[in-house]
Amino acid sequence: MREIVRAAAAAGLDFVILTDHDTNQAARDGLAGRHGGVLLVVGAEISPRARGHCLALGDVDVTGFRWMPDEYYLRKLRRDGADVYIAHPEGRIKPTFGINLKQWRVWESEHFDGIEIWSYMHDWIENLTPLNLPRLYLRPDLAIEGPDQRILHLWDRLNLRRRVAGIGALDAHAVTKFFGLFVAFKYEFLFRTILTHVLVDAWGLSPDEDAAELARALRAGRSFAAYDWLAPSEGFRFFTDRGVVGDRLALAGPVDLEVVLPRPAEIVLVHNGRKGPVAASSSARFPVGEGGVYRVEARLDGRPWIFSNPIFFA
Hints:
Elements: H1 2-10, E1 15-21, H2 25-28, E2 33-35, E3 38-46, E4 54-57, H3 70-79, E5 83-86, E6 92-94, E7 99-101, E8 114-119, H4 120-125, H5 133-138, H6 149-161, E9 165-169, E10 175-178, E11 181-184, H7 187-190, E12 194-198, H8 207-219, E13 223-227, E14 237-239, E15 248-249, E16 255-271, E17 274-288, E18 292-300, E19 303-308, E20 311-313
Parallel strand pairs: 1-3, 5-8, 8-9, 15-20
Antiparallel strand pairs: 2-3, 3-4, 4-5, 6-7, 10-11, 12-13, 13-19, 14-16, 16-17, 16-18, 18-19, 18-20
């Protein structure tokens, strides 16, 4: 645990959310809270056999879910007070590397708050083979292609029905074993790759207050996922004169959606899942007059960089 916190501090992170498989023992051991400048939040990854996984954030009992039906344990987690995020929803099956993660299928449920739209390790492993493993281990950046388009389309459809927050993730196990060889991705490296940036109203209060504010902002979609290895994304903003990313707003006439980037890139406005206007700049203004769900994607030199949560207009 100390290794994780040290790596997070070295990478300049404000918080880390730890989700070990089927346990939140770290919280029971008193490790949740602030360690220097890093807030450690402890949740758990619920990993039932032969079904998809989800992340449970909150001080709840996460044992005994291995054989429960998906909807049952989602209801129980929410009833117990957990925030729930669907992990690696597209699944991953690569027998060569001993990976068999089931696809999430219970999308009609109302009992989850968000989904992982982009995971570093799952992106890295997508096109991995025994032949290209040495090259992609030495140059992991070459394997990063961006969120699975199927997941983005699914996410857009879900947001047409209700707010479903999108988050970035690492699935950081630090060491993965392939063919008896240990391929190490150190935490400090991973903490500089795909990150979830969260817009909070207050920070630096008590650890409990900061954790609560972080959870509230994540649920509300006040965040964006970014591949900071390409370039730092701090300073990205997506807003109107009446609200910011994650907000639900009444559309009482034409409104300008504004985007600000820390450096010039290709900016794409996505409306109800359909890609629309494109701008190549460090800022853009998109006038819109139609209700719906609007989010932003940014690409740097043609490579995926930033994926925002939506702003909703009714």
